[in-house]
Design a protein that fits this description.
By secondary structure, the chain is α/β, with parallel strands linked by helices. Helix content is 43%, strand content 18%. The two termini are 29 Å apart.
């Protein structure tokens, strides 16, 4: 079985092809995993502008698809003429994406249908205009190639990417569930109780900014560009364990629930930078504040995750989302689990699968392969919440 997956929920245009070999054991094999990141475009603005991101997706989707198919050795160049009815339907599907329509048409005229069984597409949560381009693109391919599609929840994909190789499938649910998953991305910070694949309950989440958003906003205050997480982590790593002359707040560290709040931390950073005046530009201060920002965020994330894992007696702790690329978070979470709940397993994605990618969408599509739909019923859902049954 081969799955073509598409991800455009934020500022990465990503397409992957996953082969699932089913014999005695089921094995995942990534045939391609292309991510075209827009960070250079959004860098100077300190964040993602949805309409700008949408335009980039429109320009990138066909080149990324071409590359993904070529890399998977599934590109079959062959000239073919779509009939007028097909052109008309494609035009209707891509009505709001006229530039994309032209490039999709040119691509379909030059390529045969590839050997893929279905399309997995992120339909939420995310930036509405960005989700729309991806879903309409998936609809166009699904219609023209006459293959079904599966809508995928982006947050669930950040969880399930942890079940990609090298961990073999089928999983032993008795050994893994219940699990607690900490999803930390640019748009979300959630603690999710995972009772099984497809069985989720959000038990806590941020009341304001997400952890990644806090890294991004802090970097903007410090003039470090976008995305903030990797650059703050980098400076913190170089600074090492230099003594800190100040501490930043750890919001909600001691609250008796599983919620988070990061906007107070951002304000504290803003005030600290303002108070430092010219000194705020010094290498010493920048190093110190990056170490402290990273540690403040890590402290609350780990504290709440460990409490939830203990309270719900979970067998596994699953980390996911862009912030899970943070080396200190990965290291400190593993150490804390080892110390406090040694019987629990800790799943952390490969760094290249932490930030947005389409392979995670394909794996999730595989787990939900029974949920195949015709292209007409695909819909975006910008505020999609994991664990809430769709109407
Ligand atoms: O999951 P993701 O790629 O996109 C969303 O779904 O939002 O997460 C992006 C977020 C950004 O806020 C970025 O600053 C953060 O992940 N991030 C990191 C690191 N790499 C990416 N945060 C901390 N440390 C990192 N190494
Ligand atoms: Zn994400």
């Amino acid at each position: 079985m081969k799955i073509l997956s598409i991800e455009t929920s934020c500022d990465d245009t990503a397409i992957a092809i996953l082969e699932v070999e089913s014999g005695k054991a089921i094995k995942f094999k990534a045939l391609s995993n292309i991510v075209s990141s827009q960070t250079d475009i959004h860098k100077n603005y300190g964040g993602v502008f949805p309409m700008m991101a949408k335009r980039e997706h429109q320009a990138n989707l066909v080149p990324v698809l071409t590359l993904a198919l070529k890399q998977a050795k599934l590109a079959n160049p062959k000239s073919q003429i779509p009939n007028p009815k097909q052109i008309q339907t494609l035009k209707q599907i891509l009505e709001k994406e006229s530039t994309l329509f032209e490039s999709v048409k040119a691509f379909l005229e030059k390529h045969e249908k590839p050997d893929v069984d279905f399309i997995a597409i992120t339909n939420g949560p995310g930036l509405e205009p960005c989700l729309h381009v991806g879903v309409n693109f998936a609809k166009a391919l699904s219609y023209f190639w006459n293959i079904p599609a599966i809508p995928v929840n982006h947050i669930e994909a950040h969880i399930l990417v942890n079940f990609l190789d090298p961990r073999p499938y089928p999983l032993d649910p008795k050994k893994i569930f219940p699990a607690i998953s900490l999803i930390v991305s640019g748009g979300h910070t959630q603690l999710i109780l995972v009772k099984g694949i497809g069985k989720y309950k959000i038990i806590g989440e941020t009341l304001d900014d997400a952890a990644g958003e806090c890294f991004d906003k802090a970097a903007r205050i410090l003039g470090l560009g976008y995305p903030g997480g990797p650059v703050i982590a980098d400076i913190a790593l170089k600074t090492n364990n230099a003594p800190k002359s100040f501490i930043l707040p750890r919001p909600m560290h001691h609250s008796q629930d599983y919620n988070f709040s990061f906007s107070g931390l951002k304000t504290a950073i803003l005030y600290k930078v303002r108070d430092m005046g010219k000194e705020a530009k010094s290498e010493k201060f920048l190093g110190e504040i990056c170490v402290e920002i990273q540690q403040a965020i890590i402290d609350v994330l780990i504290k709440k995750t460990i409490s939830a894992a203990k309270d719900f007696k979970t067998k596994t702790i699953i980390l996911g989302g862009g912030v899970s690329a943070n080396q200190e978070l990965r290291k400190q979470l593993k150490e804390k689990i080892q110390k406090e709940i040694p019987s629990a397993e800790c799943l952390i994605p490969d760094i290249k699968h932490s930030t947005d990618n389409a392979l995670m969408i394909a794996v999730t599509g595989f787990f939900h392969r029974k949920n195949k739909k015709r292209w007409q019923s695909l819909k975006t859902s910008a505020n999609l919440r994991i664990g809430i049954a769709k109407k």
